[in-house]
Design a protein that fits this description.
- The chain has a seven-stranded antiparallel beta sheet, sandwiched between helices.
- It has a single domain, classed as Alpha-Beta Complex (Cathepsin B, Chain A).
- It contains nine helices and seven strands, in the order H-E-H-H-H-H-H-H-E-H-E-E-E-E-H-E.
- The longest helix is centred in the first third of the chain and has 13 residues.
- 35% of the residues lie in helices and 17% in strands.
Amino acid sequence: MNLRRLFFLLAFCLVGQAWAQRLPLPATSIGLDSPAGQKLLLESDTKADYWPLSIQYQTQQDPSSCGPASSVMILNALALPSPVSKIHQPFHQFDQDNFFSPAAEKVLSRTTLRRQGATLNELAGMLSSWGAEVQVCHARQGGLEEFRDQARQALGSGQRFVIINFHRDPLGQSGGSHFSPLAAYHQGSDRFLVMDVARFRYPPFWVKADPLFRAMNTVDGVSEQTRGYLLITAPHQS
């Protein structure tokens, strides 16, 4: 099997399940489950983060768990010391249950998360409680160019990861506030690949940088700050 066929097989396995149950993507987005979306990934020269994230791809367990699901993907991709997984004992791996350690619960309890979701700063604090180094970037404090530059540098590293916090409305998508990791950037079309953890709703999708930034540059009703993105590394790799 040649490399190209192997790549398409991997992409199919990641996004090919339950197509019938998903919502159709709006015209602003290109699904990775389409030939056009797969072509963008093949052409991208900024996709080092895609490979570790695709191995750790998660589906959020409930409507409020997009933040934990995104975080678990990153923590496992960083290979940080992890607790025993109750589901897969005696093996150690981050999952959406053991992510809520006593230290993480001090930042945001599971009960509060289920009631109102997580803010950008709260999710950063929970990630930090596991030893990750996290930079919080609210959209209003920077701009599109700063976001594009920082995200591109991270996505090309394979060691620095990006979680975005955005509202689906500016993208013409169904749903509200959401967290998901970015996995790649396609320079020719100025599109980012969003590894949507609501896999039952949408596949991973490519979206242009400008509408994606506008989706992040929306106000979170809990924090009363704009949404934005997190830059995450293992200790001493920033």
